[in-house]
Structures are given as structure tokens and as C-alpha cells.
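User: Can you recover a sequence for this backbone? Please restate the input before giving your answer.

Assistant: Of course. Working from this structure:
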């Protein structure tokens, strides 16, 4: 067998595996061979081997929210995590100026660390790689009820504090405090298991979007993933409802 034939056979096997393990890919129009963002074999294997993320269903999240109506702080934290999918570090970094109540969105800014490899100098020696930081941002649309809840919270806290700068944090608590708030909120709802963690709501957000037919590329952008392979793992959880899809077919 020639090299070209081996490569074609290998591509065919990979495609068959993808279609077998990820039936949702065909539903989202993401066949590997025609996918606009190239995936290496290493990245595909990573999607297969990655541990499935734990998440809450929409009903479970609503149970948590309903169990914390008497605690505005906990309700707001849970609601924000659930309806934006942001990381704890991003939640803590949100400033008042990042909320746009008229545009119904928030701006999430994150500082990403990376390694820069310098080119060889004139003497032919390669310089040592150095750490570099770059600031990235993304815009996340939010619902009317979350806008109202955030504005009400800021109005209340603004009246209590001496400073009312746009650079003030929306959530003036540490990451550890957020973790404790989430754990306590989940416990009130009777969901005090391994999922009682802020990052679980990020997974829940992604799963909920895909179940509601949001294209995987948009989910990737909303989550701030640098690689589509990180987003594809959610398709292993979400299986398209065959009955609903068949009902949409015109005969």
C-alpha cells in the first residue's frame, strides 16, 4: 500500500470514529474533513480521552437558585456563573465598567500567559524563550433578569460604600469566598456533591447552549477557548434528540 493510500485510509478511520463517538457533530455540521479549524490527531485523541466534565441540568440550577432567594449574594453569584459561563478568576476581575446594561452584555478581560521563542541573533545563538502576557477580551450577552439583578445589587452596594468608581469590582470577594458561597448554595438545594464548585456552572452553561442548538464555534467564543478541541468534549455529553430532528425533516 502506497503512502497516499495509507493516509486516505487513516483519515477514513478517524472520520468513522468521530461519527461513531460524536453523532452530534453531524447535527452541528462539523464533519472533521470539512471543518474550517484544522484538528491534529493529537487534539482528536485528547477529545476522546478527556474526562467528561460534571455539570448541572437546567432543573438542578433552578433548584439551586430557588433555594437561595433569601440570600441575594449567593443567588447573584450562581445566576451570573450559570448565565455567562465565566471562570471564577474572570468573575472576580469584573469591574462596574464591564457591565453594559443597555447593550445587555458584559465584557470579560483576561490576562493570558505564554512563551515567546526569539529568533536567532546575528551570532547564530538562539535566545532563551521568555514569558509574555497578552490581554484578551470577549463580549458575553446576558439576559434581562441578570441585568436587573446586577444593577439592583450595584445600587445597593454603591449606597453602602464610600467609593463608587467604575473601576470597583462588581463582586468584591476573593476566589475562596466565591467557592464557599457556591458550596453553601448547593448544599441548601440538597446538591452537596462533587459538583458543588463554581466551574461546574461553566460546564453547565456550555452543555445548555449546545442542547439549545447554539453552534459549537459560538460556544467556543463565549467560553473563551483558544482551541476548538476544548469545546468539542461537550458534544460527548449532548446527544441530539432524534425524534425532534426527524420531525423537522420534510418528506
Amino acid at each position: 500500500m502506497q503512502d497516499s493510500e495509507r493516509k486516505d485510509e487513516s483519515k477514513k478511520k478517524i472520520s468513522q470514529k468521530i461519527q461513531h463517538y460524536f453523532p452530534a457533530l453531524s447535527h452541528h455540521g462539523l464533519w472533521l474533513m470539512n471543518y474550517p479549524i484544522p484538528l491534529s490527531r493529537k487534539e482528536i485523541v485528547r477529545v476522546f480521552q478527556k474526562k467528561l466534565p460534571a455539570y448541572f441540568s437546567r432543573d438542578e440550577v433552578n433548584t439551586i437558585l430557588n433555594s437561595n432567594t433569601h440570600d441575594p449574594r449567593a443567588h447573584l453569584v450562581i445566576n451570573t456563573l450559570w448565565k455567562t459561563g465565566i471562570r471564577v478568576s474572570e468573575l472576580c476581575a469584573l469591574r462596574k465598567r464591564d457591565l453594559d446594561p443597555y447593550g445587555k452584555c458584559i465584557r470579560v478581560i483576561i490576562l493570558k500567559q505564554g512563551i515567546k521563542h526569539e529568533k536567532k541573533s546575528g551570532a547564530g545563538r538562539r535566545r532563551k524563550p521568555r514569558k509574555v502576557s497578552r490581554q484578551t477580551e470577549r463580549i458575553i450577552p446576558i439576559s434581562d433578569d441578570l441585568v436587573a439583578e446586577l444593577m439592583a445589587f450595584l445600587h445597593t452596594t454603591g449606597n453602602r460604600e464610600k467609593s463608587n468608581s467604575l473601576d470597583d469590582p462588581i463582586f468584591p470577594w476573593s476566589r475562596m469566598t466565591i467557592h464557599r458561597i457556591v458550596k453553601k448554595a448547593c448544599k441548601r438545594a440538597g446538591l452537596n456533591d462533587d459538583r458543588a464548585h463554581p466551574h461546574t456552572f461553566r460546564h453547565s452553561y456550555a452543555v445548555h447552549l449546545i442542547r439549545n442548538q447554539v453552534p459549537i464555534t459560538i460556544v467556543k467564543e463565549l467560553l473563551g477557548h483558544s482551541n476548538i478541541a476544548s469545546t468539542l468534549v461537550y458534544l460527548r455529553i449532548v446527544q441530539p434528540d432524534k425524534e425532534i430532528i426527524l420531525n423537522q425533516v420534510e418528506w
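That completes the design. Residues 100 and 135 are 20 Å apart (CA to CA).
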